[in-house]
Design a protein that fits this description.
The protein has two domains: about 5-25 and about 155-230, Endonuclease Iii, domain 2 (Orthogonal Bundle); about 40-145, Hypothetical protein, domain 2 (Endonuclease III, domain 1), CATH 1.10.340. Helices cover about 60% and strands about 0% of the residues. It has helices at about 5-20, 25-30, 40-50, 55-65, 70-75, 80-85, 90-110, 120-130, 135-145, 155-165, 175-185, 190-205, 225-230. The longest helix is centred in the first third of the chain and has 19 residues, at about 5-20. It is globular, with a radius of gyration of 19 Å.
Length: about 230
Amino acid sequence: MKNEKALRKKVKEINDILEEEFGIPQLEKDLNKMDRDPLDSLINTILSQNTNDVNRDKAYNNLRQQFPKWEDVLAADAEDIADAIRVGGLANQKSVRIKGVLEWIKENYGELNIDFICDMEPQEAIELFSQLKGVGLKTMNVVLAFACGRDVFPVDTHIFRITKRLDIVPEKATADKAHEIMGRLFPEGKAFSFHINLIRFGRTRCHARNPECKGCPLMDYCSAWPEFLED
């Protein structure tokens, strides 16, 4: 890995540029109530896997309409859960995983509430829940960042792509490796802002295909733009 001190400086400069471009996101303003409840956030993040935000939200809303309480989901057959979340894709797999997560929480803690993770050290919470199928590093970082307001940095598909283009994360790095790297590099206290603004940047300009490189405020930090401007 390149000189870490230089990378931290680069990441801070990129964060400052993105905050100037998009503003400074605020947890209270930019997230809805569901995102700020740890268990709601956990289930929603499982539903987000391998789909887009629109279909994730539809799947989550369908699930809560059909099963208003998590106890109702726990008591339901996996097939009925799958029917409710079908629009989000991989419904059969996700339904089993959601039911398994709820069963594990109920068995180990007596109630369907995981607010306690907000009082845990982030790494401890990650290790505890990552033993469950469907709950990985990204999922727990999302829950800890959004629901608990912890200064941890989730790496989604946009961020994974952009940090490679910006030569922050090595091209061959895995998603887990990217979490490890970005967890060391983001400016202290800026995890949420940097995460949200990188996603905004990915959605509005640095697309997976045909990124809008001309006039990009991060052009000086990027090694990928010549390839796209040649097309």
